[in-house]
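Technical appendix A lists one of the benchmark inputs used to test multi-chain prediction within the project. The record comprises two sequence entries:
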Amino acid sequence: MKNRLKVLRAERDWTQADLALALAVSRQTINAIETGRYDPSLPLAFRLARVFGLSIEDLFQEEDQTEA
Amino acid sequence: MMTDSTDAEAWAGRMIRNSISLFAWTVAWVGSLALASFGPGLFWDDQPAPTLIAIAGSVLIGIAMLFANKRHLQAMDELQRAMQLQTMAWTLGAGLVGGVALTLLARHGLVGFEAEIAHLVAFMAVIYMIGSIAGVLRYR
């Protein structure tokens, strides 16, 4: 799954640590999601979307959807 | 940022407290094991009553350590839990396979020492450390 986390975070001038603290997860988890090494659970994906004020689809896309 | 900083800071504080608690109980358990192992010969001349008390104390401290570990795991985020699950699976599997293999080797006189539980514990500890490091490197 691809995501726009890094771009959206940079637009808001948030650090990984800021986002991690906001979501009550480790900075390593934010980094792993951003780099595509880890796909978050649905509850965490919803929390991420809420923090950015966006929908889950705005944050995450399937690999084949982005390539199409 | 839309955040509940109180919850977030509480989570971070809980993680630190649980880590310290787990470390303290682990140190206490190792200390109690040392006392139960070496105390009979060094301190109370192999009398059974103090030995039983030392072993019972070690078991109780061990139970407290298990609960501290449970709290520590419950406070982790989902990636940390996934990493722990992988590490513990490797540790359990390697411990089972390695422990049985070592027992067989010792039974047939193919190793120059007698297989003891301490060897298995040390082996599992090494596997756990390697697994933990591998998890951190994988998701860094």
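Residues 77-140 of chain B form one domain. Residues 65 and 73 of chain B are 12 Å apart (CA to CA). Comparable benchmark entries are summarised in Table A2.
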